[in-house]
Amino acid sequence: MTLKEKIIHESLRQFSTKGFMSTSINDILEAVGTSKGGLYNHFKSKEDLFLAALSEARQIWRQRNLAGLNQLERPLEKIKKLLTNYRDHYLADLENFPGGCIFVNLAVELNDQQPHLAREVNEGFERFRGMIKRLMDQEKAAGRLKDGIDTGLVAEMIFSGIVGTCVTYTSDKSRKRLDHNIEAIIDYLSMIST
Amino acid sequence: MTLKEKIIHESLRQFSTKGFMSTSINDILEAVGTSKGGLYNHFKSKEDLFLAALSEARQIWRQRNLAGLNQLERPLEKIKKLLTNYRDHYLADLENFPGGCIFVNLAVELNDQQPHLAREVNEGFERFRGMIKRLMDQEKAAGRLKDGIDTGLVAEMIFSGIVGTCVTYTSDKSRKRLDHNIEAIIDYLSMIST
DNA sequence: GGTCAGAGACCAACCGGTCTGTCTTATGGG
DNA sequence: CCCATAAGACAGACCGGTTGGTCTCTGACC
């Protein structure tokens, strides 16, 4: 693992717990065991480091949450798999994200004080929402949803549920409550399908 | 309005947008139009100011969200009213909380760096969850929920949905999406009741 | 004249970022 | 093979600016 990778990895950890603004360059330097020169040799500013860390975070997110989705036929099953991935492989990954979902945390922190950085995060949310909506539409097209179900509303509900779960898990780090939350969303999905 | 009240009010606004750590004492002083002496005459530290602001925030939360609940008989209707209050009187209150739900924002920010302050916030969440659960239990006891409904899971789902809505609204400030989110939760409630 | 809210100079600690210097490694001509 | 040289990686002193907090002083009111 190169120094650059170590810095990105450590930034991920610290940004996820303390946020972007409250993590000082020195915090990262100390944890990695390097110096100003070592960091600014690879990144031209703290913001540059942020973007690199965010990019890495997205890759990890995909790797954790989309694993095994392609093996499933039914769109609704894909969403359920996504939910259990969130529980088992993403939120539980205390190595990379000890502070919970880094995207939710950063979105909340940055929206009013670093809008251009927040936009980066929000675009990811938009894509995620779109993905859920698309899967629900496929399920509906296959005639497997109860009559009168509005896939847009359902997608919004699922997304809200996931985000709420992330915040809750960030707050209390209770595995039991995490299980409850994911189960509740899966129950909801069962309710609307035939 | 006394200087002390002005400071609390302004702190509320700024904490809700920029969070606790990233709001500097100077930011507040400038907005209020006073000086270090004026602030530290009333509060012994930034943390002391935080607690005062949090207490005020709770009072406003109750006033906005619990309004009109007592006029309703059915517990489920109370929850629905709570949801529309959230939409119309709480999240939309840009005067006091221009940055969205201050509790969610603070919980996310403080959980890993100021645990003793975060605990204050989380206790409020716990009470809120308890309130929803109690209302659902009453509804179930009255035989108005479909068979096999787990009120604990439902309460968790509603809470997650609300928190997710808060985060989403904080992120994009879209009134339309806020309406969608609240509607989705209300639809969910209709689904599980008879 | 005593009291106290408020003003603002001041402090040490810390912030992100720059800059110089050192040490290691790669390169290339004889 | 040897050594001059260039290049990149990293260390850490240093910079101006900002942080939360203290302290002294002013001036209005009783």
How much of the polypeptide of chain A forms β-strand, as a percent range? under 5%
* Unreliable stretches of chain A: none
Mean pLDDT of chain A: 96
Largest interface: A-B, 47 and 47 residues
Indicate the percent of residues in helices of chain A.
over 70%
How do the SSEs of chain A run, as a string of H and E?
A: HHHHHHHHH
Oligomer: homodimer
Per DSSP E runs of 2 or more residues, the count of β-strands of chain A stands at 0
Overall form of chain A? elongated
Largest sheet of chain A: none
The tally of helices of chain A reads 9
Radius of gyration of chain A: 18 Å
Span of the ends, CA to CA of chain A: 49 Å
Secondary structure class of chain A reads mainly alpha
Structure description:
The structure is a homodimer of 194-residue chains. Chain A has 194 residues and is mostly helical. The first copy, chain A, is built from nine helices and no strands. The first copy, chain A, has helices at residues 3-18, 25-32, 36-40, 46-65, 75-90, 102-110, 115-141, 151-172, 175-192. In chain A, helix 5 runs antiparallel to helix 9 (175-192) and helix 6 (102-110) crosses helix 7. Chain A starts with a helix and ends with a helix. At the A-B interface, helix 6, helix 7, helix 8 and helix 9 of A face helix 6, helix 7, helix 8 and helix 9 of B. Chain A binds a DNA duplex (30 and 30 nucleotides) through helix 3.
